[in-house]
Amino acid sequence: MILIGLTGGIGSGKSEVSRLLAARGAEIVDADVVVRELQQPGGEVFAKMVEMLGREIVSADGTLNRAAVAAKVFSDNDLLLKLNALIHPIVRRVMNDRVESLRATDKVVVLDIPLLVENPREGLDGVLVVDLDPEIAIQRLIEQRTMKVEDARARIEKQASRESRLAIADRVIDNSGDRARLAEQVESAWAWILSLR
């Protein structure tokens, strides 16, 4: 198994890079997907989040209201830290279990972790960072996710800096161009990953 960490700031295009790597045969273990699974009603962290943040984070259909959670935690740093302290250890355990289930294979396993700088991982064979000027990321968040400018800026400011992400990179994918340019860079990164065998 080759174990690769993949990270990038919000709006960087990390999910698209992850999709392109999966199309080339990588097994993706996505932290955001794991979090969403755990936050489903009946999931391991759902009840704990409701206990911590209150019933107002539950939608009428009984699922988690992500916008309500974001409104609470992104305006209260202490609350964000408490929520992260609750969620991160559980997510890490689930992700580790998934990696271990693939350990004896010859697969490329990509850990897609937005907060890799904040939560470093041991045992990675390499780290891919999807990089983008924060101003371009803000523009894309406004256009593609219909975020408000101030919300996009607040999310970016809560994450590790661009410089700290680049500092942990073994390979950088610059996503300031178009999709064709991105696909070329992913192809080159895939060749690099396979060379680690």
The assigned CATH architecture of the largest domain is 3-Layer(aba) Sandwich
What is the percent of helical residues?
40-55%
Provide the low-confidence segments as ranges: none
Structure annotation, total helices: 9
Number of domains: 2
Could you characterize what this model shows?
- α2 (31-38) crosses α5 (77-100) and α6 (134-145) packs across α7.
- The chain has 197 residues and is of the alpha/beta class.
- 25% of the residues are buried.
- The model has no long low-confidence stretch (mean pLDDT 93).
- A 5-stranded parallel sheet has the order 2-3-1-4-5, sandwiched between helices.
- The longest helix has 24 residues, at 77-100.
- The chain is built from 9 helices and 5 strands.
- It folds into 2 domains: 1-26 and 107-197, P-loop containing nucleotide triphosphate hydrolases (Rossmann fold, 3-Layer(aba) Sandwich); 32-97, Rossmann fold, CATH 3.40.50.300.
- It has helices at 14-23, 31-38, 46-53, 66-73, 77-100, 134-145, 149-158, 162-167, 179-194, and strands at residues 2-8, 27-30, 108-112, 126-131, 171-174.
- Helix content is 52%, strand content 13%.
Task: Pick out its properties.
197 residues; alpha/beta; Rossmann fold; 2 domains; 9 helices
Please describe the topology of this protein.
Blueprint: E1 2-8, H1 14-23, E2 27-30, H2 31-38, H3 46-53, H4 66-73, H5 77-100, E3 108-112, E4 126-131, H6 134-145, H7 149-158, H8 162-167, E5 171-174, H9 179-194
Parallel strand pairs: 1-3, 1-4, 2-3, 4-5
Helix pairs in contact: 2-5, 6-7
